[in-house]
Amino acid sequence: MRRLNLNKPDAKTSEIITYFGDCRVSSAAHIVLACDKMDWMKAILRILIILPMLWVSTSCGGGASAREKQVAGAVESLQLAHLKPTDYKVTSFEPKGNDTALLVADVHTAFLMKKNSRGTWEVQSIRVGDREWEDAKLVAQALNQVKLQKVKNDFEILANAIDQYRAKNNTLPQARSIGDLDDTLYPKYLSSLIRLDPWSTEYAFNANSPTSYTLMSAGPDRKFGTADDIRFER
Hints:
This protein has helices spanning 39-47, 64-76, 136-169, 178-185; strands at 3-4, 13-18, 23-25, 88-95, 101-107, 109-115, 121-128, 133-135, 204-209, 212-217, 230-233. It is an alpha+beta fold. The strands form 3 sheets. Strands 1-8-7-6-2-3 form a 6-stranded antiparallel β-sheet. The chain has a 3-stranded antiparallel β-sheet with strand order 9-10-11, with no helix packed on it. The protein has a two-stranded antiparallel sheet with strand order 4-5.
């Protein structure tokens, strides 16, 4: 990923430091953002999902203090950012079984803003913890590639389960939706439920004929029937 060395904002650039909902403008900015101008920021935050929250799987310790030390060590060892204890605040820790837990944390994140040709403020670069500035578009593209790979993996798992079901029953699962498909395949053919794509939209399953089917993701725009739909046919 290309890195940017942006230490001093120019006349058209300002650095905004956010503390997960509490936003202040740096002294170099000399601007004030009205509340109605935050919609675009929210939209970008939805894309840059790694910034406001960290979701960390970690083993649970015997006591609260031991667990806190393990959590701190896990967070600080992330290659995503060199996070120090002052860079994040744990808001909740929820065990998910014997060896997994969901950690939600507020993370100190910086956004470098710049006005475009229309005079509208846009996020140019981002920084998590004490890492260097990263090009916001490249971060979004990298995240999108990870999500596309996740869709591919999900489709391969579902297709393998469908093939096993067909081999045993000599027919495709009688399903009209991904929910029906999950109910039919889990837990005998699927070890875990697969229902939502990485953009939090339900996958679609269509039986095209007694012997063929299509799996679909609505893609980044979360709308079926558009150019970014992802299809798997067999």
